[in-house]
Amino acid sequence: MRIAFCCTDVKAGPWLDELRAAVPDAQVEEWQPGAPPADHAIVWAPPQQFLDEQQQLKGIFNIGAGVDALLKLRLPAGARVVRIDDGGMAVQMAEFVCHAVIRHFRELDVYADQVAQGKWGFRTPRRRADFPVGVMGLGVLGARVAQAVAQFDFPVNGWSRLPKELPGVRGYTGAEQFGEFLAATRILVCLLPLTPDTENILNRDTLGKLRPGGYLINVARGAHLVDADLLELLDSGHVAGAALDVFRDEPLPPEHPFWRHSKITVTPHTSARTLREESVAQIVRKIRALERGEPVAGVVDPQRGY
Ligand code: NDP
Ligand code: OXD
């Protein structure tokens, strides 16, 4: 069996070492143009040339959860696209989002400013009931996040395409219940995949439906958000602030207003990192299962886009 590794902006050496140790019976090579046909590929933002040359692939394993960039390419007809299914990302996402929610709710940035000025003072405690959290997307990451936030006794709403029942989470389904979900939410967390249905979904109209003093946590993809609409809503005060981990252009260009906005916290697409050891173990398990003709979790439906 041959496995091709073709990941842009990823240091190949450590991945190749771990893959070779985990599948000693396979030939694992970093792809070069003209390389022999492989059975499976491990990819992140591969060039179109790679996919055009490797038409016989059976499995294309994306070393992230989001497959939006991959699905924009022309894929070999017989290949199944498989995303990383948690692989240690869900717990990272849960801690990142809980941190952002609590930092906003407990006004920790206000305290940090006060302390920097040598001031000792107290804010009036806020009521948790006034800060319902809404999680868009209740998949592998969103479900874990919604339940983690619920552990802190916030009211939690969740929105998905199909009905979902999660303890401590009030579920809303589909386009029909989207408005109701937004109106019941003050802190909005985006954990949707980027698809034609969800691009630009965080805009003037939708963010405008949040409870006054809303707060946005976007940890999914930059193209979910219409940047200018967020800036407008921050200026009007309808949205109190935002924690943004993902951007339309990454790295976020130096001149972008998000960098310096006093109500925006920027992080560099780091809320849930791909963990190499966990990912290699998961991918190798799935390659073995596919080779035996068994089903695997995390197979992407290209029509649905996730
Ligand atoms: P999943 O595919 O497991 O879950 C997607 C969820 O979104 C599902 O609940 C799905 O609904 C819902 N959904 C999709 N389309 C719609 C729609 N049109 N309307 C309502 N709900 C919809 O994805 P993950 O949880 O694993 O990951 C989510 C995203 O997080 C990734 O696609 C990626 O973009 C981003 N990500 C960001 C990272 C970062 O570091 N910032 C790291 C990892 C991922 P249903 O359940 O009904 O199908
Ligand atoms: C992912 C990501 O999709 O890192 O895994 O954003």
Please characterize this protein's 3D structure.
With 306 residues, the chain is of the alpha/beta class. The chain has two domains: 2-87 and 274-291, Rossmann fold, CATH 3.40.50; 89-266, NAD(P)-binding Rossmann-like Domain (Rossmann fold), CATH 3.40.50. The protein is 31% helix and 17% strand. It contains ten helices and twelve strands. It has helices at 12-22, 48-53, 68-71, 89-105, 108-116, 140-150, 178-183, 204-208, 227-236, 276-291; strands at residues 2-7, 27-30, 40-44, 59-62, 80-82, 133-136, 156-160, 170-173, 187-190, 214-218, 239-244, 264-266. A seven-stranded parallel β-sheet has the order 8-7-6-9-10-11-12. A five-stranded parallel β-sheet has the order 2-1-3-4-5, covered by helices on one side. The mean pLDDT is 98. The site of oxalic acid has 4 residues, from loops.
